[in-house]
Amino acid sequence: MVGKSEHIIQKRYPDEHYSILFNKRTGYFVRAEDKGFPEPLWSKHGPELLDISITNWCDKGCSFCYRQSTVQGQHMSLEDYQLIMKQAKELDVFQVAIGGGNPNQHPNFIEILQSTVDHGIVPCYTTNGRGLTNEILASTKKLCGSVAISAYEPYSEFRKSIEQLLSFGIRANVHFVIDNQSIDTATDWLISPPDFLKGINSIIFLNYKPIGRKPNYELILKDQSKIKKFFSLVDKQKHAFKIGFDSCSISGVARYLNTNTSFYEGCDAGRFSAFVDENLRMFPCSFMTNTTWFGNLREESMKDIWQSNKYFKKYRGRIINNDCNSCQMQSICMGGCPFIEELSLCGWKDERIKTESEYIPI
After folding, report:
1. DSSP letters of 131-177?
2. Cα 272 to Cα 224: distance, rounded to the nearest angstrom
3. Which DSSP helix (H) or strand (E) runs through 312?
4. Phi/psi of residue 102, each to 5°?
């Protein structure tokens, strides 16, 4: 069933015993299980969200880029993107998060946005801020649900990108990667927001993953004193902008924030979302591109990969069989990241390992 208002989608999946409500204008989304049934582990009919890399081209050369994007990076063809959209529509995908590389520097970017909308799906994208022409900004205002600017130095360039969005009446969201060093900067921003953040709608904090061009395991966020201070500032202070987190931060959110847990979501990769790269490889998660855990959309349908691919099944199995059963937050965070265990922010796994080691005979 589709709701009467063209921007409100209401659907019920009787075989899966749940319903969804999605506001295409605001992004408000609700998943509600039928009375007497548990919350669904995954959407068997297909992903609700697709994360799509339309290009691996980027001229910024950041050392921490998890896609290792360069100016030699390839673009996805418009025909390939339309193939994805056709199948996505058939599987009730509601949103796509378009990324790269730097997606808005794809030569067919505006056509890609329009194709998404033509298939009844809401496009969103994240950019490093370069290549935001007036034409692209006008199309963004008309077609997109949201856009985010990645916050990297130099912040003068970052601020210019924010001002470009604001000049077109586009809500400016910010993505900021927190690691064992940058969390100090994030903490300072929460205490005293710098001028270059003026006017933004939100900051989404992303947990650092040691993947990509120069993975550094020493940057994994593990300092519990820093983590506690950071979350206490998120929790207790009023801010001029909204604050959000990626699902890779769920273990810290669940342990340290006093918020209605109905708004929490554990890792949804392989459960309600999937990633497709510019070569039409479909993974449970975008941080798995250095693995063989994918299905090929040139050889199989999106539905078959989603429902039957052995790696998607294995990924969901890891979420079900996480090793946090004795933790009271397990039902909320679902064990954190099922792929990179070191991303846990709660400290519980480290404490448990330390405690257990005391009983290991030498």
Report:
1. T--HHHHHHHHHH-SEEEEE--S-HHHHHHHHHHHHHTT---EEEEE
2. 30
3. helix 310-320
4. -105, 100
pTM of the entire predicted model: 0.91
Backbone phi and psi for residue 12, each to the nearest 5 degrees, phi listed first = -120, 140
How far apart are the C-alpha atoms of 8 and 232, rounded to whole Å? 36
- What is the pLDDT at residue 341? 79
Nearest to 145 by CA among 120, 162, 177: 120
Task: Tell me phi and psi for residue 310, to 5 degrees.
Answer: -65, -30
What are phi and psi for residue 58, nearest 5 degrees?
Answer: -160, 140
C-alpha 342 chain-centroid distance: 18
In angstroms, the Cα distances linking 332 to 14, 73, 229, 320 are 25, 38, 22, 12
State the sign of the Cα–Cα–Cα–Cα dihedral 63, 65, 66, 72. Answer: negative
Q: How far apart, in whole angstroms, are the C-alpha atoms of residue 202 and residue 27?
A: 14
Write the pLDDT tens digit of every residue in 304-350.
999 999 999 999 988 887 767 667 777 777 777 888 878 888 876 55
The string of DSSP letters for 213-249 reads SS--GGGS---HHHHHHHHHHHHHS--SSEEEE-GGG
Rounded CA-CA distance 182/101 in Å is 22
pLDDT surpasses 60 at 19: yes
- End-to-end distance of the chain based on CA atoms, in angstroms? 63
Structure tokens at 13: 């999946």
Tens digit of pLDDT for each residue in 64-106?
Answer: 788 889 999 999 999 999 999 999 999 999 999 999 999 999 9
Tell me the average pLDDT across 179-190.
96
Q: Which of 47, 42, 48, 45 lies closest to 320 in space, CA to CA?
A: 42
Go through the chain and tell me how many residues it has: 362
pLDDT top residue among 15 and 349: 15
How far out from the chain centre does Cα 119 lie?
22
DSSP 44: T
